[in-house]
Design brief:
By secondary structure, the chain is an alpha+beta fold. Helices cover 19% and strands 37% of the residues.
Length: 189
Amino acid sequence: MRSALFENKLSNLRCGARRLNLCTIGPNQKWSFWSHVKRPTGKNGFVVGRNLVNGQLTRQIGGGLCQLSSLLYHLSLSAGLSVIERHAHSVDIYEEQDRFTPLGADATVVWGFKDLRLSNPHRVEVVFECFVHESMLTGRVYARQTLPKYTVDFVRQQIDVQHVVVNTWVNQQPLCQTLYEQKQGLALR
């Protein structure tokens, strides 16, 4: 049986995905997650969900939207979009079988503080497609012309029992390095 917070997360993902579905980024255009999703308030259709704040799981309006921003970040890397702003989570709470994107492909967003911002270096417009079917969040990025192929790799290095570093590579070139504290099984406060 799914919890109320799980159902609320799905509601938040549906609300965010509706605002992002078929969103376009023109050539050389900059794009912002929050400029399209808008502030996560009840008035804007969002509900209380689970959020990771300062290494703790809490209840907040808009909880779960990081799954959507993370999906878009991962899609953006695969499509060769330029990442202007991206913030990783500092804590890894997922067991391997529960991940929605590979470790290192996360992009946390916090209204007014942390955004996912991208730009399109291609000569053609790119389009994001996002939707939730049943309990599955799905996203695609496409263009009217075939985009160059980009290979994205997330290479983990265990630092110690509680920390892992993930090196992100695009087309065998280093993009970034992210340190995570591992707290699988973290309980909601």
